[in-house]
Amino acid sequence: FLKNIKKTHPTCQKDNEKFLEYISQINLNNVDLIYFVSGWDDQSLQNVYYLINYLSEYKNKLVLVGSAKFTDILRSGYTIAKNKNLKKDKLFYLFFKKIDKTNKSVNEKLKNIATKHNIKFFDEYSIYCKNKKCKIFDDKYNLYFWDSDHLTIYGSKFFGQELFKLIYKNK
């Protein structure tokens, strides 16, 4: 597996190498593996296949996570700050229209891969978006994102809680 992972974005390559080094040193019988996929190209998709094949005997412990990404979040945040009279429902619809279409398409491909290989899949959009509305902040206006696809510390905690609820609800 290690030799099959091809070069990815230079920033991600170091993280990939750390991840691979880590999983090569642990007893995989004792952990569930979550592979969060963000920043896509064809090679990234190929790397997912390599990972699945490498971990084939542990597939029941693997969860592929498709990321959420929105366009123009900073501009949308400015709109919120400038116009405090916007109703939440209108804002949530505005954020729904800002879903990154390429990223959503990649998540669909990931979901198909997961289904084909009988692996759990978690789409990050599912915790923010329902009924053509997306919440990028909670009821107290604590932001989940600080830009188009990076979570705030608050958002990271929220995301982690929601992810683990989904993963472990059937165990």
| Main sheet: strand order | 1-2-3
Rg to the nearest angstrom? 17 Å
Calculate the mean pLDDT score and round it: 76
Ends apart, CA distance between termini: 29 Å
Identify the overall geometry: elongated
Return residue spans where pLDDT drops below 50 for at least 5 consecutive residues: 1-5
Question: What oligomeric arrangement do these chains adopt?
Answer: single chain
Structural class: mainly alpha
Helix count, DSSP H or I runs of 4 or more residues: 7
Helix content: 40-55%
Beta-strand residue percentage? 5-15%
H-E string: HEHEHHHEHEEH
Q: Characterize the biggest β-sheet.
A: 3 strands, parallel
What is the count of β-strands? 5
What do you see in this structure?
- By secondary structure, the chain is mainly alpha-helical.
- The chain has helices at residues 10-25, 42-54, 73-82, 88-97, 101-116, 125-128, 153-168; strands at residues 33-37, 62-66, 120-123, 129-130, 133-134.
- Helix content is 50%, strand content 11%.
- The strands form 2 sheets. It has a 3-stranded parallel beta sheet with strand order 1-2-3, with helices on both faces. Strands 4-5 form a two-stranded antiparallel sheet.
- Helix 2 links the parallel strand 1 and strand 2 (62-66).
- Residues 1-5 have low confidence and may be disordered.
Question: How are the elements arranged and paired?
Answer:
Elements: H1 10-25, E1 33-37, H2 42-54, E2 62-66, H3 73-82, H4 88-97, H5 101-116, E3 120-123, H6 125-128, E4 129-130, E5 133-134, H7 153-168
